[in-house]
Amino acid sequence: MNVELVHIHKSFGAVHANNDISLSIKSGVIQGILGENGAGKSTLMKVLSGFIQADTGQILLDGKAVRIHTPSDAIKHGIGMLHQDPLDFPPMKIVDNMLIGHEGGLFPNRRQVSNSLTELQSQFGFNLDPEAYVDSLTVGERQQLEILRLLWLGARVLILDEPTTGISASQKEKLFETLKKLAEQGMVIIFVSHKLEDVEGLCHKIAVFRQGCLVGETVPPYNTDSLVELMFGKVVSLDEKTQLEGSEPVVEITNLSIDDNRIQIRGVNLTINCGEVIGLAGMEGSGQRQFLRTLAGLIRSVGGELRLSGKRMTGKPYHSFQTAGISYVPASRLEEGLIPGLSVTEHFILSEDQSGFFIDREKAVTICRDRIKTFNIKGEPVTRVEALSGGNQQRALLAMLRTPLRLLLLEHPTRGLDIESSIWIWSQLKDRCKQKTCIVFISADLEEVLHYSDRILVFYNGKVSQPLDAAATTVDQLGQLIGGKGF
Amino acid sequence: MLNKTSPVYKFGFQILAIVGALIFTTVVMLLAKAPPLEAYRLIVIGSVGSVGKISDVIVAWIPLLLATSGLLLTFAAGLWNIGIEGQITLGAIFTTLALRLLQDSALSPALIIIIGFLSGILGGMIWASLTGLLKIYGGVNEIFGGLGLNFVATALTIWLIFGPWKRPGVGSMSGTVPFDNLLWLPQVEGLRMSWWSLGIGLIGIVVVFLILQGTYFGLRLKAVGKNGRAAFIIGIPTGKYMMSAFFICGAFAGLAGATQVLAVYHRLIPSISSGYGFLGLMVAMLINYQALWAAPVALFFAALNIGSIQLPIVLKLDSTLSGVLQGALVLFVLMMDGVRRRLTAKKVN
Ligand SMILES: Nc1ncnc2c1ncn2[C@@H]1O[C@H](COP(=O)(O)OP(=O)(O)OP(=O)(O)O)[C@@H](O)[C@H]1O
Ligand SMILES: [Mg+2]
User: Most buried in the list A177, A208, B146, B310, measured by CB within 10 Å?
Assistant: First the structure.
């Protein structure tokens, strides 16, 4: 199916999120979409998949104008979308999840569904148990399920909005294989991402967005530098690797043991010096998240000890961890990090210490404008957080952190951020290290782990490696450990 | 074309909702073979037809406004405080208790009245805290907890009226022995309303408005209500805030119960809460939890209640007709709001 978007305009109040976008994609093409945070990528994808309506403009499928008002209109026309932030997955079985959105009789034939699911799976080498519960799947598996579901519903156009942020390297490989296969079958794939190497490796052509406009389209061979320049309107280069590690131990972990759901972690020993950055690597669900949350005081350890600047923290409530200068930034922005319905200003007020009984709104707005400027958040003080673009939500989350901090714990700190912002965020974080904060972070991006950490812990199925010196480790070595070799 | 996000557009839908609710109620009356126009006329006359009627409306307005004020806080914290009926009842019981204990003492009547109010507040808070403790430490949903405690509160009232506090001779549904005139909250000459309780009601809603609009406490409460998980991680002790919401709402409910005893009935009667708690829930929903609108809408609901009192006598219609209209209003406003959202979302290509 050929997809054409013609002169699409979409504004949110004063923000012109899509400004006269025209894009045409032929059947069998994998179309890449690049652009800085808030450039309007997700907006265009939502227009195409019926989650929002364009103000003006047309959508043509195989040359015929169609009206898409709802996601179910879209899927009837064969357009399916995988979202940037995985939508809520209820605790139901995979087969039942497939049946949602399917227009069948009153009594759906579960056996038939389960059979066609198995058939589809064998095509792509997926391995999901139809009777398994959706909430027990990893992000990567949910994604596979969602692709299968959309294909099963008859999707001929597949939109993926930043699909590689939460998944492991091997899952990513499988995903790319699948997408290529689908394109060969004549499907249109639209792939939105901030990861240049992903887009360059996968896509037949690339469109670049900046501030709501389509500023350029390119075909292979790609030139990374010129793509980056097109995205940001300037040259961006990776900063030098810096080491700020002092010799004063801040965090002392002795024999720490954690029991949480299916993960058991036993006997971790680690000393973190001031200004040091520790990267946690591993496949999703290997225990790194539990470890981080234990350091945050959100999970109680079942054995061992945790000391911060010599003070014993084990067994203390979350609140004491916070007052001791420990801060935690969760990965799921809209579930655990931010409060949908409240404005950006209100978030900053909440994260500050209370002064007096009444809020000084004027002062709060001034502070907010200041932070919006420093953190380059695209939004207004009164903007509700759910209206910010994915990357801008992440910036808001990081802008809420207090200073000074002793220990900063981050889950996927640059998830959804464009390259320029990632670099900028890390320069901010490194500045904190200069002020003696130590950082522990999780990332699925091995390059990020290697580049920004001083030492690395690899998690595999609850087992924890010895700390590795990041400077002496290669991507390959790290990949092997993550896969469980050497434990 | 009319701008779909303009306030005028929104207002138009609200008018439509009101018209819809009126039509619905009219149909109900026609089905019940009652003359609708005559019924509406009676409601209007019954509520604003004389100074006495207006004063009666205000008497009903005050407890309703207090209940709504309290509920705005629990709603802000994301809590459905169904138990407010019981909290009003316990307020009334505690006030009655204080008055019974002190009425023969040497204290001045003014002081006894003040102690009566404070004791009522205490009663409401205790009852609300039970729901809160069940919710936060026992994992019992506040709707179930509140519902259960409402039954207990009613049973307690009946037991007191027919047992320990019964009138000399036999207990009766008309309640306990009325208190001496000196222990009544001073009323306006010849009317049932009291400036004092009116003042309490108005101060109450203003306080709640300020809390929600301009304080750290109010903002944190909203954060807890909108996303408890994130609020906790940001560093707000969510349990404590929910508990405070229950306490304050209980205090307002207790105050409403105390006014019912001190300014309206001057004794404990079986259904002392008069359903103002449930009605307050409806008002809060109707105004979409915006404190600014609480006073006028509660006044309107109070007027409907008072206006329909005459219906059974004149038209042999049940006075719950006002309930039908109130319920229909809430449903239609919520429904039209949904319709408007859909239409606004659907812009033509
Ligand atoms: N529902 C909304 N209400 C108001 N503004 C919105 C809404 N959705 C998006 N915007 C604004 O539109 C602009 C484009 O947002 P969009 O989500 O399309 O960006 P994006 O290119 O996907 O960015 P990111 O890479 O950060 O995900 C942003 O400035 C955003 O704040
Ligand atoms: Mg996006």
Answer: B146
For residue B165, name the pLDDT band (cuts at 50, 70, 90): very high
Contacts of A286 (CB under 8 A, 6+ apart): A263, A459, A460, A461, A462
Q: How far is the CA of A242 from the centre of ligand 1 (A)?
A: 33
DSSP secondary-structure letter at A386?
Answer: G
ipTM: 0.87
Q: Does B203 touch chain A (CB under 8 A)?
A: no
pLDDT tens sequence across A414-459? 888 888 888 988 998 999 998 889 999 999 888 899 999 999 999 9
Q: Where are the beta strands (DSSP E) in A175-300?
A: 188-192, 205-210, 213-218, 249-260, 263-273, 277-282
What is the third-level CATH fold of A3-232? Rossmann fold (3.40.50)
The per-residue DSSP string of A431-473 comes to HHHHTT-EEEEE-S-HHHHHHH-SEEEEEETTEEPPPEEGGG-
Contact B291, B72 (CB under 8 A): yes
| A318 contact residues in B (CB cutoff 8 A) | 232
Instruction: Provide CB contacts within 8 A for A167, sequence distance 6+.
Output: A138, A139, A140, A143, A175, A284, A444
Please check whether the two domains, A3-232 and A236-325+402-487, share a CATH topology.
yes
Gap from CA of A379 to ligand 1 centroid (Å) = 9
**What are the residue boundaries of the structural domains of chain B, listed by start?**
61-303
Question: Is the model's pLDDT at A71 over the cut of 60?
Answer: yes
Q: Among A319, A342, A361, select the one facing B223 at the smallest CB separation.
A: A342
Q: pTM score, two decimals?
A: 0.84
The DSSP code for A142 is H
Return the C-alpha torsion angle A216, A220, A224, A228, nearest 10: 10
d(CA A321, CA A299): 12
The CATH architecture of the domain made up of B61-303 is Orthogonal Bundle (1.10)
pLDDT for A458-476, tens place per residue?
Answer: 999 899 999 999 999 998 8
Query: Could you tell me which chain A residue has the CA closest to the CA of B225?
Result: A339
Domain A236-325+402-487 class, CATH top level: alpha beta
Pocket of ligand 1 (CB under 6 A): A 12, 15, 17, 35, 37-43, 84, 378-379, 387-392, 416
- Say yes or no: B222 contacts chain A, CB-CB below 8 A: yes
Q: Which residues of A touch B214 (CB under 8 A)?
A: 358-359, 361
Map out the domains of chain A as residue ranges.
3-232, 236-325+402-487, 338-401
Q: Which long-range contacts (CB under 8 A, 24 or more apart) does B163-169 make?
A: B165/B96, B165/B100, B165/B268
Specify the residue with its C-alpha closest to ligand 1, atom 12: A17
Beta bridge partners of A58: A6
Q: Work out whether strand A157-161 and strand A188-192 pair parallel, antiparallel, or are unpaired.
A: parallel
Task: Locate all alpha helices (DSSP H) within B179-215, ordered by sequence.
Answer: 195-214
Shortest CA gap B23–chain A (Å): 32
Over range A40-54, report the average pLDDT: 94
Q: Identify the sign of the CA torsion B153, B157, B160, B163.
A: negative
**DSSP structure class, residue A222:** P
Retrieve residue B252's tokens: 């307002």
Q: Whole-angstrom distance between the N-terminal and C-terminal Cα of chain A? A: 48
